[in-house]
Amino acid sequence: MSVSLLLSCLSIIGASAFVLGRTRAAALSGGRSSAMHSRLGYHGAYAAIWAVLPALALICAWLVISPQVIDDVVVKSFPEEVKSLPEAELNLSYGVVRSIAHGMRLLDNQELAAVAAGSADLQLMLAQKGVPLAVRPTGYMVDAANKYNGMRHVSRVIMSAAAIILSVLCAIYGLRAIAPRFRARNRVEQVILGGLIVASSIAVLTTLGIAASMLSEAARFFNMVPAGEFFFGTVWDPRFTGAGAQTTGTFGLIPLLAGTLYISLVAMLVAVPVGLFAAIYMAEYASARVRSIAKPMLEVLAGIPTIVYGFFALVTVGPFLRDISADINGLLTGSYASFIEAQSVLTAGFVMGVMLIPYVSSLSDDIIMAVPRSLRDGSLGLGATRSETVKRVLLPAALPGIVGALLMTASRALGETMIVVLAAGVAARMQFNPFEPMTTVTVKIVNQLTGDLEFTSPQTLVAFALGITLFCLTLCLNVYALYIVRRYREQYE
Length: 493
Hints:
The chain is an all-alpha fold and 493 residues long. Helices cover 74% and strands 1% of the residues.
């Protein structure tokens, strides 16, 4: 039985347990709801929880443990000469076995019989099914694949039977616990509270896991390259070691950090005025009809993939700025040489700013709309104009939230990759001319991890050092934004 079908069966058992639990509670109450400690729905939910949660826990544990057991048994069935191979070659052989096992599940009975009789080319047959094999299958590989499929089938059957039996038994237990004074509501709310704690812990644990994984690899990098050379170096030239080469290159963070901050600054200079003015217009000046149309259309920008923005910068914005700079230069000096390159800080910053407009406008609009209506009415009642009310009442009241929103938007700009790759290039340079190309930390992370590489050299491990630096930078921005919001938040009663 597949996992999806098994989950459907558990859902049916859980729904049945809910109905039976509610019916049993109604029967015990004798038509008087006050006779029961909890409402009828809580009793039904208690029985449904017992019917579903233990079985789900069993399935999750089984799906984690069973593949490891099957892998060990299948590997032990390999011939001795195969098991004596290096670990990398042994893992490659086992990967081929798993591919063969997956492909054989796609064959019909006639094809399987032809494979068993040896009258068919298994490699060609699996390739036709969309399962290409890097090597020609040998006898022990086919036997191991059959063993793998057999154990997997037996494991799924036992798991399905055990989960359904456990679900039914636990549902019976939950139904038997229902009584007039049984505190079903308290038990159900404890389960819900536990689920909420688990859900909130996932984000925290994920953040800690990301930080720990990057720190462990970054520590290996700093064992090879001094931290001072990385954080204060002004030259980025990570040379991949070639044949007979001894140099590892230089890993200066300053050019990448300067490019990241420079492009993000240009983007914020574009996004903040446009987004903030759009938020003020929609919150205070636009009619309900205009707002209902303009706000969703503006927020559509947030749903466009960043690679599309990159194409827009590469095909439209970059050439436009290059050509118009050539025209301006020709009118002023007579030389039609362009002073703005197609790939430049200005191109990347402008397009990235357009991408950030909906973030600024949507957050700022929500913050401005949260200002109490009484402040607007009081200001207008005292004779202030609409613009004076916005400047002297609404914006000061909403300023802490707006500042926090802008800082969070800046952290989003720091992590952008695709727009910079296509619009600003990949050259790590120290310069302050916005009309020339620069690059960012995220672009170099992609560059260092492109290709089939092992994490054993500083050229690849530097990506983790760059990642932890960017992680700390954006984390500090987000923490500071939360501090600003909480420190200067106005309380209105």
